[in-house]
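Aim 2 progress update. The chain analyzed this quarter is reproduced below.
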Amino acid sequence: MGEWGSAKYVIVSPTARASVTTTPSTTATTPSTPTLANTPKPCLGDCNGDGQVTVNELITMVNIALGSASVSTCLAGDANGDGEITVNEIVAGVNHALSGCSG
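Predicted structure tokens:
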């Protein structure tokens, strides 16, 4: 063993062989199971995400269906994600406005 400054070093023969022995761990590891967060289902027609559908939001949905507004103004009105709001989606929004968003 030699020293170079404050570092120590060992000169090893180029023909030297090293062997490594590993000992298996006896501790079992259990993989973690991911859990899903309990996120509420979006309410069809609830454009601002406040948990209720208002008349203004229904009007926004109608304007989108007529082509005078972009679907981006009420993504919650586009139930199937096709980029359009159809009559059945407006009717579902009306039902949520009358009965609430739960269920």
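Residues 87-99 form the longest helix (13 residues). The longest strand covers residues 2-4. These observations will guide the mutagenesis experiments scheduled for the next reporting period.
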